[in-house]
Design goal:
By secondary structure, this protein is an alpha+beta fold. It is built from 19 helices and 28 strands. The protein folds into 3 domains: about 140 residues, 3-Layer(aba) Sandwich (Creatine Amidinohydrolase, Chain A, domain 1); about 140 residues, Creatine Amidinohydrolase, Chain A, domain 1 (3-Layer(aba) Sandwich); about 290 residues, Creatine Amidinohydrolase (Alpha-Beta Complex).
């Protein structure tokens, strides 16, 4: 990987010129986004890493690449071990690593538009015993070296109709204003892109696969607001939609607007707002109220229109997936397909719906050993043939104006081994345990997470990622604050009580390094449930994804009678929902896939 080695060397030269002994490069943008636009892909430019979560630390004599358990294999394939030390989080933190590796009295640079204030304080404290300091840079040094760095998107904003949003933007701003008054605040900073999109009922295409626009907002306690976005992105239709209560300002004016809030009590989210936002508010003399953005929970609890849209999106997406799975089963055994061939063909099936806006993330098309990397990303260099005897894992989703989807299925290419069937069935048992959980109000996803793992634990097995994430309504495919995960797993915290109306994924898995990966993912809606004869209303999950689960990978003897009943009922409902959307030949294939397990 000579190009990346050269880039690392060039960055070190630049850092020395700027009087820095090191620099931290996260995979995020100035909105703390999980998925970022091409202009913010600094980590990929520097290291070659193509995953969706990671951080690099560059010192004069060594460099470290930090990733979590989802990328243990992938990072080694894409990042040169001759230049980089691989460090796994959360077992080791960036702050902890710097405390042991930064030079005595070292000056470690960071971009304050790419880190939270909490990260800055924690890392600075870790450096202090060595006499080290954390130094904010006025300009990111990578930007000066990245000759062909893309420009931020100039795509226009689009209005999300109230019929799909379920509430008007004015109504949402009024609710935010009520929240501000209740907390004695004068204004709220909205810096998360999906929060801005949801609060103003607008969408965009500035971030691949996530329908958001690069923007910030300030909402006042009287319900008026300022939306900071490139002016050319706002057409007459969006101006009319926003109305007179919203003033559109250039995104470049955002920092100065923060500094102008002298004496104001300003609510700002310490988890979602970068350190530069806090610095600007401090510099202007605002009184800071570090509080979670109120949009986060409001957005997570879907209203009836959003729920109805989600069901519609799921139905058409499921029909496309059924067509795809039939095609794959008939085509793959010949050994002529590659991982990229499958990505393109699945996109075609979704596009044939006529209403696909985008994929909801880059499709994980992983055959054989690639499936053992939970977030594997196929590239021209890694593209592998799909061969008989392998397991093929496909994790994908669609963005539609009425909803966002995400689903994972595994298909055997010819006959699976007994071990594959055993592992798949244990994953299925964990999936069913989550899907059928009934729990009281106040339960967190951390309490549910073990349900998915017990069948694997009993065989001395596990998986190194959370069991489920929240999902947006034509927004982010990964949406907080709800999770099904232990706090130690990626995306595991904080512990958020599950509430009726939340959407989550259910995706336990198993990964055998060098051989195969298994994951079964559906989406679920949290609903109220009153057990017969019970004293209290409880909560439960209602599965919303209906695509057949591959029968050839199931070992029926490992299933209990209740698990068999769930699987048969799930397949019966899959057939009921999908059959009307399919041609006769595909319906016949689906009927066979959905027959009782026996």
């Amino acid at each position: 990987m000579p190009a990346y080695s050269e880039r690392l060397a060039t960055l070190r030269t630049r850092l020395a010129q700027e009087g820095l002994d090191g620099f931290v490069v996260p995979l995020t943008d100035e909105h703390m986004s999980e998925y970022v636009g091409g202009y913010a892909q600094r980590l990929a430019w520097l290291t070659g890493f193509q995953g969706s979560a990671g951080t690099a630390v560059v010192l004069a004599g060594e460099a470290a690449m930090f990733t979590d358990g989802r990328y243990t294999l992938q990072v080694r394939e894409q990042v040169d071990g001759a230049d980089w030390t691989y460090v796994q989080v959360p077992q080791e933190s960036i702050a902890g690593w710097l405390a042991g590796h930064a030079p005595q009295g070292g000056r470690i640079g960071y971009d304050p538009w790419l880190h939270t204030r909490e990260w800055v304080e924690r890392t600075a404290a870790a450096l202090a015993p060595r006499g080290g300091t954390l130094v904010p840079v006025a300009a990111n040094p990578i930007d000066a070296l990245w000759a062909d760095r893309p420009e931020p998107s100039d795509a226009p904003l689009a209005v999300q109709p109230d019929t799909l949003a379920g509430r008007s933007a004015a109504d949402k701003r009024a609710e935010i204003a009520d929240w501000l008054r209740a907390h004695g605040a004068d204004a709220l900073v909205l810096s998360a892109l999906d929060s801005v999109a949801w609060a103003f009922n607008v969408r965009g295409t500035d971030v691949t696969h996530t329908p958001v626009a690069l923007s910030y907002a300030l909402v006042a306690e009287d319900g008026t607001a300022e939306l900071f976005v490139a002016p050319d992105k706002v057409g007459d239709d969006v101006h009319r939609h926003l109305g007179n209560a919203v003033r559109v300002r250039d995104k470049a004016e955002f920092a100065s607007a923060l500094r102008a809030l002298a004496g104001k009590r300003v609510a700002v989210d310490p988890e979602r707002a970068v350190a530069a936002i806090f610095d600007a508010l401090d510099a202007g003399g605002a009184m800071l109220l570090p509080m979670r953005d109120p949009v986060v929970l409001a957005k997570a609890i879907k209203n009836p229109a959003e729920i109805a849209g989600h069901h519609s999106a799921q139905a058409r997406d499921a029909a496309a997936l059924v067509r795809f799975l039939k095609w794959f089963e008939e085509t793959a055994p010949a050994g002529t397909l590659t991982e990229l061939d499958v990505v393109a063909r699945l996109h075609d099936f979704r596009a044939e719906t006529g209403v696909l806006k985008d994929e909801s993330f880059e499709t994980i098309s992983a055959t054989g050993a690639h499936g053992a990397s939970p977030h594997y990303k196929v590239t021209d260099e890694s593209n592998a043939p799909i061969l008989p005897g392998q397991l093929f894992l496909i994790d994908s989703g669609g963005q539609y104006a009425d909803g966002t989807t995400d689903i994972t299925r595994v298909m055997p290419v010819t006959k699976p081994t007994a071990e594959m069937r055993d592992r798949f069935t244990r994953v299925l048992k964990g999936h069913i345990a989550v899907a059928t959980a009934i729990f009281p109000d106040g339960t967190t996803g951390a309490q549910i997470d073990a349900f998915a793992r017990r069948p694997l634990w009993e065989a001395g097995l596990d998986f190194a990622h959370g069991t489920g994430h929240g999902i947006g309504a034509y927004l982010s495919v990964h949406e907080g604050p709800q999770r099904i995960a232990q706090p130690t797993y990626p995306g595991g915290g904080p512990l958020e009580p599950l509430r009726a109306g939340m959407l989550l994924s259910n995706e336990p898995g198993y990964y055998k390094a060098g051989e195969y990966g298994i994951r079964i993912e559906n989406l679920m809606l949290v609903v109220e449930h009153t057990p017969a004869g019970g004293d209290a209303t409880m909560l439960a999950f209602q599965t919303t994804s209906f695509v057949p689960i591959e029968r050839r990978l199931i070992e029926p003897e490992l299933l209990t009678p209740d698990e068999r009943a769930w699987l048969d009922a799930y397949h019966a409902e899959t057939l009921r929902r999908a059959a009307p959307l399919l041609d006769a030949d595909t319906r016949a294939w689906l009927e066979e896939k959905c027959a009782p397990i026996g």
